[in-house]
Specification:
Elements (H helix, E strand, L loop, with lengths): L2 H5 L3 E7 L5 H18 L37 E7 L2 H10 L4 E9 L1 E3 L8 E4 L7 H23 L6 H8 L12 E11 L2 E9 L3 H14 L4 E11 L2 E2 L3 E2 L6 H27 L20 E3 L9
Parallel strand pairs: 1-10
Antiparallel strand pairs: 1-2, 2-11, 3-7, 3-8, 4-5, 6-7, 8-9
Length: 309
């Protein structure tokens, strides 16, 4: 594999984690497929150079591809954003941009458990005949309104200024630093008691907080509720349409996915991070991150908590 092929491995891509597959196993599979693809390619000719040494010549280190991943939630199935090589720094930029994520969250009325999961230890059973779609929608509207006020608070913006108003219109208001979970949008997609399905747009969330959200909604409805499924459908500017299926976790598919995503990643990060970046330029379409190191890395975006695997 030549230097051009390695250069195409610097960036971000998304993979679809099927139900029951732990993130560590996904990482290992992708690592193995990348190494197989790299080893199957034609080896580059060794570089020749003259060196003047004061001591004996030590054994030279071979170039290798190292892959790592940070802890991510064990969701039943979800979108997982990965970075290779200098894509690791892009994952940091995604985190600093405080981008929102989309989830579908499935709830079940009528019982409470110790961990807010459907399969947790049963704590209480309640009736739910009085719960209607209208009551649920009203509770969701109150939750969204309170979180929008909190978003303004953590953004440290004065909404009376023109700049803050324009940012609000463009949906660019973000916390200035780490904050509690903030919900920017929440609505009911399906209501068929005891089951209901929510769409949640949020940031700085953990899986336990999303499960607790279902529990608190149940309490507000004068009943109880548990979470039966959490599924991430969007992570920043990556959606399920971008996610590589398991059959596509190979070298060439990953290279193509990184190259297809690169222009959008650069544009979105520049838009979100412009105040912090100043005059620093992100790589544009068709450009690669400059690489002087021979070591690359694969890294998964982190999030705390877990929903049953």
């Amino acid at each position: 594999m030549g230097s051009a092929g390695l250069a195409r491995l610097h960036g971000l891509f998304a993979a679809y984690k099927p139900p029951g597959l732990k993130w560590e196993h996904l990482r290992d599979i992708v690592e193995l497929q990348l190494l197989k693809g790299l080893n199957a390619g034609k080896r580059p000719a060794p570089e020749q150079r003259v060196r003047f040494l004061l001591g004996p010549l030590e054994g030279s280190e071979e170039k290798e591809l190292t892959l790592t991943a940070t802890s991510v939630p064990t969701l039943r199935d979800h979108l997982l954003v990965l970075g290779v090589g200098h894509g690791r720094s892009l994952l940091t930029d995604m985190y600093n941009a405080h981008l929102t994520k989309d989830y579908t969250v499935r709830g079940l009325l009528g019982k409470a458990t110790d961990d807010f999961c459907e399969d947790g230890r049963l704590v209480e059973k309640t009736t739910f005949d009085h719960v209607t779609r209208e009551k649920l929608d009203r509770i969701l509207a109150l939750i969204q309104g309170s979180h929008q006020k909190a978003l303004v608070k953590y953004s440290n913006l004065d909404l009376q200024t023109q700049e803050a108003y324009e940012m609000a219109v463009r949906g660019l208001i973000r916390p200035m630093s780490k904050s509690p979970m903030l919900i920017t949008g929440i609505r009911c997609l399906h209501f068929a008691p005891p089951e209901f399905l929510l769409e949640v747009q949020c940031m700085h969330e953990t899986q336990k907080q999303l499960r607790r959200l279902v529990h608190e909604i149940g309490l507000e409805l004068k009943t109880t509720a548990v979470c039966s499924q959490v599924r991430r459908t969007r992570d920043g500017f990556f959606t399920l349409d971008d996610a590589l299926l398991r059959t596509q976790w190979d070298l060439h598919s990953i290279q193509d996915a990184i190259q297809m995503a690169a222009p959008r990643v650069a544009a979105e990060l520049e838009k979100s991070l412009r105040p912090q970046l100043g005059t620093q330029q992100l790589p544009g379409p068709g450009q690669h991150w400059d690489s002087e190191e021979s070591r690359s890395a694969l890294k998964g975006q982190a999030a705390d908590g877990a929903v049953g695997g």
